Amino acid sequence: PPILQPESRCTPGGEGARCVCSALAAPEPVVTFELPSLNVTVTEGHRDFTVTTPGLGTGGAVTVTGVLTLRGTLDPRLAVVCSAHNAHGAVRQQLRFHHPGGLVWAKVGPVGAVVAFAIVIALVCYLSQSRRK
After folding, report:
1. Of 2, 50, 74, 96, which is most buried, counting CB atoms within 10 Å of its CB?
2. What would you measure as the largest C-alpha separation in the chain, in angstroms?
3. What's the average model confidence in pLDDT over 102-118?
4. How many CB atoms lie within 10 A of CB 29?
5. How high is the mean pLDDT of the chain?
6. SS3 for 6?
7. Residue 42 CB contacts under 8 Å (≥ 6 apart), including other chains
8. Which of 88, 46, 37, 86 is nearest to 66 (CA)?
9. Helix/strand/coil percentages in the chain, nearest 5
């Protein structure tokens, strides 16, 4: 059966996200994306789906990479499942959302960012007042 590669994941950015599903198998696997909460399966031929086949690997294995572009505001509970299958079997895995550069603000949200900013301002004011005395 196909083997899903570790680079398979979704990366939020701008208005939406970019999901990558990469699978290695011999014979060449077919890669699809499933969005269970929307009851949708996205395959080759969809306008937001592109497939690349870099070439043959060892033992005739082929890596196939599918890229799905999700547009618009994303539901935080949205699940994206990467699927790959060939004549020897199938494999499925829910993709994790990867936040590049460890964006702390994306994790704490806008309210957390405002609270953190207010604490920094209060600290600066306190320190400047204590130095005047």
Report:
1. 2
2. 79
3. 54
4. 30
5. 82
6. coil
7. 32, 33, 34, 35, 48, 49, 68
8. 46
9. 30, 40, 30
62-71 vs 49-56, strand pairing mode: antiparallel
- At residue 79, what are phi and psi to the nearest 5 degrees? -105, 135
- Overall size of the chain counted in residues: 133
The percent of residues in the chain predicted with pLDDT above 70, rounded, is 74
User: Kind and range of the H or E element at 16?
Assistant: strand 16-25
Domain 3-94: assigned CATH number: 2.60.40.10
Asked if residue 34 has pLDDT above 50, the reply is: yes
Quote the CA–CA distance of 132 and 19 in Å, as a whole number. Answer: 54
Paired with 5 in beta bridges are: none
Q: Are 61 and 86 in contact (CB under 8 A)?
A: no
Question: Mean pLDDT throughout 54-70?
Answer: 85
The pTM of this model reads: 0.70
Cα–Cα distance, 3 to 24 (Å, whole number):
5
The residue that leads in pLDDT, 97 or 64, is 64
Burial class of residue 74 (count of CB atoms within 10 Å of its CB; 0-12, 13-18, 19+): middle
